[in-house]
Amino acid sequence: MPPLIKYLVVFTLVFIIYSLFKAFYHLYSRKSSPKQVVKALAIRVGLSITLFASLLFASYLGFIKPHGLMPASEAVEKSINSK
Q1: Most C-beta atoms within 10 A of its C-beta, which of 2, 47, 53, 61?
Q2: Per the structure, how many domains does the chain have?
Q3: b/e 34-46 (16+ beta carbons within 10 angstroms → b)
Q4: What average pLDDT is seen over the chain?
Q5: Is the pTM of this model over 0.90?
Q6: DSSP sequence for the chain
Q7: In this structure, are residues 58 and 5 in contact, taking their beta carbons and an 8 Å threshold?
Q8: Containing structural domain, residue 21
Q9: Burial class (CB in 10 A: 0-12, 13-18, 19+), 67
Q10: What is the C-alpha to C-alpha distance for residues 70 and 68, in angstroms, rounded to an integer?
Q11: How confident is residue 79, by pLDDT bands cut at 50, 70 and 90?
């Protein structure tokens, strides 16, 4: 995976977590209105859906390549050695 895509994914995840904590703050703040909580949660959900769709699209275009938990060569070696 190219480094730029990794940085964008990490930045988006950090922003999603920031939005979640912002909603939590507004939820427990006495001065905040419920509209601020809903807005922060809507931004978080929108970012999550956008990140998921972007990863699917990047995978479809071949920018990123999905893989299993172990690289294919290690999985094959372990299955051959266990027989």
Answers
A1: 47
A2: 1
A3: eebbeebbebbee
A4: 84
A5: no
A6: --HHHHHHHHHHHHHHHHHHHHHHHHHH-SS--HHHHHHHHHHHHHHHHHHHHHHHHHHHHTSS----SS-HHHHHHHHHHH-
A7: yes
A8: 3-82
A9: exposed
A10: 5
A11: low
Q: How far apart are CA 25 and CA 63, in angstroms?
A: 37
Residue-wise pLDDT tens digits, 13-49 = 999 999 999 999 988 887 888 898 899 999 999 999 9
The answer to whether the CB of 73 falls within 8 A of the CB of 80 is no
Q: Cα torsion for 32, 38, 39, 40, to the nearest 10°?
A: 80
Q: Name the percent of the chain lying above pLDDT 90.
A: 46
